[in-house]
Amino acid sequence: MFGAIVGRLLFREVTTLEIRDLGRSFRLVRFGGDALRSATWEPGDKMQIYLPGQGMRTYTPMTWDVDGGVAELLVFVHGTSPGAEWGRRLRVGDRWQLFGPRRSIRGAGPADPFVLFGDETSFGVARALTDAKGASRVRCVFEVNDVAESEAALAAVGVSGTTLERQPADAHLAATSERLIDELAAHPSAALVMTGRAQSIQLVRAHLKAKRALRAGTVKAYWSVGKTGLD
Ligand SMILES: Cc1cc2nc3c(=O)[nH]c(=O)nc-3n(C[C@H](O)[C@H](O)[C@H](O)COP(=O)(O)OP(=O)(O)OC[C@H]3O[C@@H](n4cnc5c(N)ncnc54)[C@H](O)[C@@H]3O)c2cc1C
User: Fold this and answer.
1) Do 44 and 129 form a contact (C-beta atoms < 8 A)?
2) DSSP 8-state code for residue 178
3) N or C terminus of the chain: which is more exposed, having fewer CB within 10 Å?
């Protein structure tokens, strides 16, 4: 009971308004409620979803209409862990609670370009930043499990970028890094934003450093092998 009362004070309660399945692995969720109207949201911010009995999981609002009290997120249904299972089972009309939004990826002015590295969990932030800056200022390179499915999901949410399929022993990360180096060279004033899997970020950073292409920016691991609920 104490938890429920505290929860009501801390969290924003929302209702699922619409769900679009984008292939087998992505669910585009539109949700709303009066509690969204009092928020201060900026593209790149994160929010935490409260999963009763499991704790919090972090997601990215892709859009947030404060006046309308409506927002959207893209869930990557990667397995059977709590967040993925929540996304898989979510139905229109379900009520749930979130904490935030809170600052996650910012730091560049609206006109400054970003070169973004990430994966399927980064499509939402890519969309939010694309809306804020325009497609030509957000250059994305993603490692993904399934190129065809990911490209269809990216097109559905209005993000363009390069997708490279994951290979055993991370063999794809050399080509991924080279692609990022090309984007950085083509956009000398761009900040480098690294998201997605912690282990991939580490390897790509090492590759960029070795090629003297590492640049200032933001590093934010979205998940890490064997760890749960990164924030
Ligand atoms: C700032 C921020 C923003 C994020 N935005 C989004 C978003 O918009 N959409 C989204 O889908 N995710 C997003 N994520 C990632 C998401 O929070 C994690 O994937 C989270 O671990 C999912 O919770 P879970 O309960 O499914 O897995 P957990 O219980 O946290 O982890 C269980 C196991 O699954 C593994 N795992 C976790 N994520 C993945 C994955 N993507 N692929 C393969 N294995 C995985 C873990 O390594 C662990 O071994 C974001 C994370 C952060 C920190």
Assistant:
1) yes
2) H
3) N
Per-position b or e across 72-107, b if 16+ CB within 10 A of its CB? bbbbbbeeeebbbebbeebeeeeebbbbbbeebbee
Which residue minimizes the CA distance to atom 52 of ligand 1?
222
Enter the CATH code of domain 2-102: 2.40.30.10
| Residue 59 backbone class (left: φ over 0; alpha: ψ -120 to 50; beta: rest) | beta
Over residues 88-116, the pLDDT tens digits come to 999 999 999 999 999 999 766 667 799 99
Cα(200) to centroid(ligand 1), Å: 14
**Hey, what CATH topology would domain 114-219 get?**
Rossmann fold (3.40.50)
Geometric angle at alpha carbon 47, from 155 and 179, rounded to 5°: 40
Structure confidence at residue 108 (pLDDT) = 60
Looking at this protein, which amino acid is placed at residue 52? Answer: P
CB of 116 closer than 8 Å to CB of 69: no
Give the global pTM: 0.96
Cα 229 to ligand 1 centre (Å) = 7
Query: Residue with structure tokens 């090629």?
Result: 211
Name residue 172's amino acid: H
Pocket of ligand 1 (CB under 6 A): 46, 57-60, 73-76, 78-79, 81-84, 104, 121, 124, 220, 222-231
pLDDT confidence bin for 129, thresholds 50/70/90? very high
Domain ranges of the chain: 2-102, 114-219
